[in-house]
Amino acid sequence: MAANATVKSAPPATSAAEAAAAFERRDTRNRWLLSAPALAILFFASIGPLGIVVVYSFLTKGGYGGVEWKFSTDAWASVFFTRDIFDDTLGFADAHLSIFWRSLRLSFLTTLLALVVGFPTAYFIATRPEKTRALWLFLITIPFWTNLLIRTFAIMEVIRNEGIVNSILIGLGIIDQPLQIMFTDTAVMLGLLYVYLPLMVLPLYASMERIDFRLVEAGYDLYANRLQVLRRVILPLVKPGVIAGSILVFIPSLGAYVTPRVLGGGRNMMLGNLIELQFGQGRNWPLGSALSITLMVVVMVALLFYVKNAGKSGVRHG
Amino acid sequence: MISKTKIAATAVTFALLSGPALADGELNIYNWGNYTSPELLKKFEETYNVKVTVTDYDANDTALAKIKAGGHGFDIVVPSHNYVPIFIQEGLLLETKPNQMENFKHVDPQWVDVDFDPGRNYTVPWQWGTTGITVNRKAYQGDINTWAILFDTPAELKGKVNVVPEMSDVIAGGLAYLGFSTNCNGNKEELKQVRDLLLKAKPDWISMDYGNVEKYAKEDLMAGLNWNGASLRARLQNSNIEYGYPKEGIAVWMDNVSVLADAKNVENAKLFQNFIMDPQNAAMISDFAQYANGILGSGEFIQNKDFATAPEIVMPEGQKTFIMPACPPEVTELYTAIWTELTK
């Protein structure tokens, strides 16, 4: 009976294992099928085009734009080095380096200013009664309804020589010559700040909204002054928001094109403009591709730095 | 719910029906920004029942790059004279034979047998002008008929100068100022001096930008390298503005309406080429952008009555001029290298 039972039960056991394996196979297949659309988009919209950019950066430039299908590392060499056209000496491509440096500097300053302006704004909204918060948030998002270009031109009307700021200052007798703000790095930074400020406020608000304000009260109860509460209680709690906001402002600033184009007067180029120049007037697509990749690497490094730092301080405060 | 769907369906049907009914066809024009008269387009649309769309560009190179890349959807492009041979040589233009079109008889004979398109087998004149110097007299009262305004900027104008970022115009200006040949000059010794001149001058400039009519009128800019029509338009808004003809020589150019080899609306594009050679229509082009058009008999239709005598349009007696031809690649390469160094 017992032997019989084991013999009888053996086949169902293997078929159960088979069924399990089959189930697992089907499961894997389903999982692949289900993620196929996402993978396809990722491949065709992200990795694929990126691959094309990489390939182009290793080709020879065509006479009037475009590329010739001949391998060349000229583009990559000219990202960093330049050959003098007249005495043929090789030197650092200080033109590119100075544009890289300007882009990094302006983006960093923009991020810092956005944080300084955005933090109190977000705090203000988060501490309003729940009913009115939506209204304040709504006000923050209103500028997004207008096209970026139009917002940039609006800034130009404010800061130009006959613009609002200069007219008021001259009218009040504070200055007698208009301040030259247009076409300077300051103009570019102001433009970037205005355009990207909501991207700082929104994530900051999102993390502040979740703060349990009893913790703030507890801080005061424990004899912390306002600065200490801000530093020891609020800041650690909103750190994710600060990081997210900074990334959201820093990265688009680094690749900004319209703002420096309109407010910088074509003399104060940023990376976005330098890259565009290569595909347009410069007729050097491989160099444009190489510069694009360099920009992406810079962004990646910045991101990794942020993420790593965020992790570390999170542990310390946690 | 039902009524909403019904309304939507009706709207869609209506859109589908009325879309094609509105126009017999389309025409996509790729032209310089702030350069195409809306009245002209409206008249063309009404005459031929064609829907016209205009897209802007700001430099010949931008247009060339975009068209070479393909997939642009344009029918017409308006390159400057020195880019026409490049477009033709690269196989980007369609040989539409404007010289056999009905209105070709109106073209000024001096613009028919041109170097860049002998006998006009591809292109039709759009507008022509000069690249000189705009100065706001409020800021500077000295001599403005010299390239020194840009390259040895007077103290009053330092930091208020704009230079239009057209590579060949800027380098030609430098060559003329130093007294060298502007005819595709590839002499390294001379170009080196031009480079040094430009690099020395650049800190005195405030911007290198297009689209300046507004900025001159509003006095954001007080002087600069500019086109005569743009300068005239600025003067119409601000009477302090004057146009200078550099005595060292001034560049003459012409922009030309050409049909693209991969145009989808070839017939409409040809109609447009013929249309703008009609003096009445050519006058509309000039009335908008304030440049001469190269069509005989258009003068009497131009509404700006000062146009015929405007100092921006009528060149001074004995003015030294030159036309920049399309340069061979080895010369262009030198110019591009100087240009990159200048625009960093």
TrEMBL record, chain A:
InterPro entries: MetI-like (IPR000515), MetI-like_sf (IPR035906)
Main localization of the protein described in the UniProt heading: membrane
One BP term from GO: transmembrane transport
Bilayer disposition of the protein: Multi-pass membrane protein
ABC transmembrane type-1 domain mapped to chain residues: 100-306
Keywords, in A-Z order: Cell membrane, Membrane, Transmembrane, Transmembrane helix, Transport
PROSITE patterns reported for this sequence: ABC_TM1 (PS50928)
Localization of this protein: Cell membrane
UniProt KW Membrane keyword: yes
UniProt GO cellular component terms: plasma membrane
TM ranges: 32-59, 106-126, 135-156, 187-206, 233-258, 287-307
Family membership noted in the UniProt record: Belongs to the binding-protein-dependent transport system permease family. CysTW subfamily.
Name of the featured protein: Spermidine/putrescine transport system permease protein
TrEMBL record, chain B:
Name of protein: Putrescine-binding periplasmic protein
Entry's localization field: Periplasm
GO molecular function: polyamine binding
GO cellular component, one term: periplasmic space
Organism: Dongia mobilis
Keyword Glycoprotein: no
GO biological process terms held by the UniProt record: polyamine transport
UniProt keywords, alphabetically: Periplasm, Signal, Transport
Family per record: Belongs to the bacterial solute-binding protein PotD/PotF family.
